[in-house]
Amino acid sequence: ITLPGCGVAVAVAVRFYALIAGVLFATVVVPCNYALSIFGPIALSSATAAFIARIHLGDIPAFTAPTYGETGTLDVPLSFILGILCGLTAITFLTVTEYLTEKVREIATKYNISFLLLPPIAGIAIGFIGALQPEIFGVGYEAITRALEGNYSLKAILTILILKFMATAITISC
Q1: What is the pTM of this model?
Q2: Is residue 61's pLDDT more than 80?
């Protein structure tokens, strides 16, 4: 249980320059256990990976956010609303992914489809989604940077969000 958690923590810490996020994500998602015997190695592997990545890659932020101007009193309630929307989106994502996983397993069992065929089927489905919107592939640095710079309309951002949501749910469920 500890080794996959360490791997996830390392991946998040290095890819997003987010040491603490890597530890929290790995302890919540992978082992679902907060015991010190699991938390310690995950935290150590995340810190080590972040340290080595900084030495080799430099201290470069994952995203460069443009300057938006002064903050105002309206920013606090808007940030609160955004936080609520992000939380609801996360809950929806987890619920849909769990439901889709159950349905895929039921359909595969019902029609006697080998579980070994599910990943290629998912790959084909994700390929079709990616043909419609290539921004869904990968981590999304380019798409996030473009969104931060204001190069996408709200409709484009929502489209990317929904398609990335679908592609990730398909990947996890198969």
Answers
A1: 0.72
A2: no
Structure tokens at 58: 């430099």
Q: Other C-beta atoms within 10 Å of 44: how many? A: 13
Which single residue is written with the structure tokens 């992978």? 30
The DSSP call for residue 101 is H
Convert 112-124 to b/e letters by CB count within 10 Å (16 or more is b): eeeeeebeeebee
DSSP structure string for 32-84: ----HHHHHHHHHHHHHHHHHHHHHH-S--S--PPP-----TTHHHHHHHHHH
Amino acid letter, 59: D
Q: HSE-up of 129 (CA within 13 Å, CB side)? A: 22
Measured CA to CA, the distance from residue 47 to residue 54 in angstroms comes to: 11
135: Cβ contacts below 8 Å, ≥ 6 apart: 142, 143, 160, 164
Listed range (20-24, 60-64, 116-120) with the worst mean pLDDT: 60-64
